[in-house]
From TrEMBL, chains A, B:
Name the record gives this protein: Redox-sensing transcriptional repressor Rex
Residues annotated as domain CoA-binding: 92-193
Record flagged with keyword Acyltransferase: no
Localization (cell): Cytoplasm
DNA-binding region: 29-68
Gene: rex
Keywords for the protein's UniProt record, in alphabetical order: Cytoplasm, DNA-binding, NAD, Repressor, Transcription, Transcription regulation
Length: 252, 252
DNA sequence: CCGATTTTGTTCTCACGTTCACAAGCTCCT
DNA sequence: AGGAGCTTGTGAACGTGAGAACAAAATCGG
């Protein structure tokens, strides 16, 4: 019989068949690469080929795939279709997930018009907005509906994923409504930190943050000699009201 | 005098005043939290307060800030305005960075209409598209210009950041053009892995990947008993052409 | 049938990131 | 002036992630 294994120090703590978070974040990239190879009529690919297509190093790719099982063939590589199916199954996109989008402004419109979600395992079942002048507008096949209908829609369409594209102000309130209605995964575009109860997953997309990270590295490239002098902290910390205005604004 | 320090084992390798990547990614969040506190009229905040506002743990926040210098006061906390300025300076958003957006479709329109960049250290100097029927269209204060004008614009406006919102197909080509024109930081929305030479930074935003990560966790929440059986690999790997179609599509 | 060749799956080691815990330093009150 | 009470800055421990390296397994040619 199998002896009760004591955890080796350094081994990642992971529940049965749990996959490291860093790996989970790369699986969709592999899935996309496999789909591209498949569309090019390629039936088999080595870890090196796949790693190149996915923009990662091949050892990392092999280790990532090894968490799913042994789906390759030594000396040969991976069967593209088979591996694609296995990854899709592991991620959970062999069937479609129902999604609602809340806040049909600039960004909400763009998402609603985007055809890429359908081919990647998601089905947008409702576009919701609180603005009465938007309700009833047609976008592609869909019609904008009133945010008040949220609970009904979530319940009848088994919606588990919500996307927030409202301004920052109402975002927490919208988030709470989504959670109360039964949504357990949220993708947030509003520039604000949302708090959710345990059991609800939240991810954020923040374009200003991405640009600011680029700006940081850009600044170092262009030579730090160009940096302004560090103003020293005065003896008293008061009287600092007239510093130059700086980026980092809050709000919609 | 300062003795030449030999690297302690375990200490992160970092060039003079270099900041760990994970910290750099959080500084914009702190900046936003500080701006919010400042707008609420709060002049001083403890690491605990700030950490709550930024959605991180306070030890992490203190360690992150310690890479910038000692800007707090023991027993008191941090001066909100002063710290905000220091972080903005470190990120490099005390002045605006010029940005071009390439591909003015659904997403490009949304970004062009977004007012949030201006208040966070960025100035959109041009909207570019290859489609002649779009060139000349007015969006807010700006007019869509021909992609062919790229080089001229980059040179005359000292543009160092480019945003790609074209379909996946032309994205690499557009990327190469941007780099050749002198752009050294790129934010990519197209679902494709771009390759760039050393010295050019690239970040990607991929909504389908975000949703798929949520789907993975969602699947585990709803009980794995619901998972389809794992199909076994047949003795030969051929003849696998009729697997169910799965999410992960490629293309625009 | 066997050895050469290819490529996976995994182990080992090092680097990076997070969190705890506490001494050092500042303010305020008596 | 001196001690009580906070809060920062950081050393040290721990956990996670990345990559090099290699043994194991499969194919293929002779
Ligand atoms: N547009 C962009 O390119 C862009 C870029 C980065 C970040 N963002 C962020 O994304 C979010 C949306 O941006 P946008 O430009 O689309 O804004 P927007 O103002 O155009 O649209 C917001 C929509 O949300 C709706 N709304 C407001 N309160 C609501 C509520 N309580 N319930 C339901 N709907 C509500 C409004 O009616 C409006 O239609 C903002 O938080 C913004 O900061 C947008
Ligand atoms: N719209 C969304 O919500 C959304 C969501 C996720 C990802 N994306 C991705 O973002 C990108 C843009 O999406 P979209 O919906 O705005 O697409 P879109 O088709 O509406 O717009 C693309 C624009 O790029 C322009 N273009 C094409 N080739 C070009 C070239 N070589 N040079 C310059 N311009 C060129 C086109 O003329 C068009 O205006 C796509 O890669 C898409 O996969 C979009």
């Amino acid at each position: 019989m199998t002896p009760a294994r004591s955890r080796r120090p350094g081994a990642p703590t992971r529940t049965e068949r749990g996959i490291p978070e860093a790996t989970v974040a790369r699986l969709p990239v592999y899935l996309r690469a496999l789909t591209a190879l498949s569309d090019s009529g390629i039936a088999t690919a080595s870890s090196e080929d796949l790693a190149t297509a996915a923009g990662v190093n091949s050892a990392k790719l092999r280790k990532d795939l090894s968490y799913l099982g042994s789906y390759g063939t030594r000396g040969v590589g991976y069967d593209v279709e088979y591996l694609r199916y296995q990854i899709a199954r592991e991620i959970g996109v062999t069937q479609d997930w129902a999604v609602v989008i809340v806040g049909i402004g600039n960004l909400g419109h763009a998402l609603a018009n985007y055809s890429g979600f359908g081919t990647r395992g998601f089905r947008i079942v409702a576009l919701l907005d609180a603005d009465p002048s938007l309700v009833g507008e047609r976008i592609g096949e869909m019609v904008v509906r009133d945010f008040a209908e949220l609970e009904e829609i979530v319940a009848s369409d088994r919606v588990s994923i919500g996307v927030i594209t409202t301004p920052a102000g109402p975002a927490q309130e919208v988030c709470d409504r989504l959670v109360a209605a039964g949504v357990t995964s949220i993708l947030n575009f509003a520039p604000v930190v949302l708090s959710v109860p345990d059991g609800v997953d939240i991810r954020k997309v923040d374009l200003s943050i991405e640009l600011q990270i680029l700006a940081y590295h850009e600044q170092r490239k262009s030579g730090e000699a160009a940096l302004p002098e560090v103003p020293e902290l005065p003896a008293t910390m008061n009287g600092l009201t007239d510093l130059p205005s700086v980026g980092g604004g809050v709000g919609a």
